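Private note to self, pasted from the team thread so I don't lose it. Backbone tokens:
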């Protein structure tokens, strides 16, 4: 099979038939063998009914139905697991991503030998500058700096293409869909390209991803991913180092406080009790915190070596 198209969706029943027809036209024109995998992320409208109707008419249509809303990353994870195509393409269900981009994305993967190609929406048709456009630019600049992928300008673009082996070797969870290029790079797939893509206005419904909280969550996810990449398999290296450093500072402080007390005793000069000075308690607290951090690193090492699969979701139906 040439292409698997994965479409995560939540309450997009008005656009699904039109989107499928558009994809089918493009695929037929270029003689691709393909499948379309709709992942219904707990929609409360008629989205699943539409998917069932499309699957009844078109054998290339497949579907996954979650029992509740989990989010875009779990939807992509399950879609990746089902995908059979040599090239896997993801796009949003709101008709803002153009299926006409598929042939060139496919060519870049198969002929230019990119592991991953990310779309770049240079001229966004919607978006308030204060709540969306400016934060998006800041977010992407930070993501480039942290990930080291300097050639990507739009990490969060839903329109992306991958080699099949890429999606089978990365784990997308939580809200990490924003950082799939970073996940791919960490997995050893570092030939990452970018393609400017056409962006259209939403024709039905409203955006499900508005507000500043998504950017706050995005930065927290980026920090988490950086930490996991740097210390996920070796938490003792960070917690043990900091814990040992803090413990030693506290220990040296205790020795200094004790040394000053002994000096006063030897010289016969009056001196306060050791427990009367705040420095003793500060030093003791640092030793306790250092010990706790060291134990945290040790426990983190044990957990990381025995962690279970985190991606388990309740799927009620599949097509």
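Design output:
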């Amino acid at each position: 099979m040439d292409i698997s198209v994965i479409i995560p969706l939540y309450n997009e029943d008005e656009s699904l038939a039109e989107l499928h027809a558009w994809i089918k036209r493009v695929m037929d024109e270029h003689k691709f063998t393909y499948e379309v995998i709709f992942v219904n992320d707990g929609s409360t409208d008629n989205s699943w009914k539409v998917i069932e109707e499309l699957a009844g008419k078109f054998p290339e249509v497949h579907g996954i139905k979650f029992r509740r809303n989990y989010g875009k990353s779990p939807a992509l994870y399950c879609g990746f697991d089902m995908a059979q195509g040599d090239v896997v393409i993801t796009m949003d269900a709101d008709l803002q991503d153009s299926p006409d981009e598929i042939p060139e994305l496919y060519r870049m993967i198969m002929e230019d030998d990119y592991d991953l190609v990310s779309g770049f929406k240079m001229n966004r048709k919607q978006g308030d500058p204060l709540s969306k456009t400016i934060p998006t630019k800041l977010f992407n600049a930070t993501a480039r700096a942290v990930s080291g992928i300097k050639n990507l300008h739009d990490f969060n673009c839903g329109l992306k293409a991958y080699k099949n082996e890429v999606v089978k070797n990365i784990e997308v969870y939580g809200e990490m869909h924003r950082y799939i290029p970073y996940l791919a790079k960490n997995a050893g797939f570092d030939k990452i390209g970018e393609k400017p893509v056409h962006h259209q206005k939403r024709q039905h419904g409203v955006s499900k991803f508005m507000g500043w909280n998504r950017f706050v969550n995005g930065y927290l996810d980026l920090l988490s991913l950086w930490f996991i990449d740097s210390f996920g398999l070796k938490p003792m290296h960070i917690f043990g180092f900091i814990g040992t450093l803090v413990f030693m500072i506290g220990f040296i402080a205790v020795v200094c406080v004790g040394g000053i007390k002994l000096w006063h005793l030897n010289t016969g000069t009056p001196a306060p009790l050791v427990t009367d000075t705040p420095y003793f308690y500060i030093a003791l607290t640092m030793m306790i915190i250092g010990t706790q951090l060291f134990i945290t690193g040790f426990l983190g090492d044990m957990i990381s070596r025995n962690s279970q699969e985190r991606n388990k979701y309740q799927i009620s139906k599949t097509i």
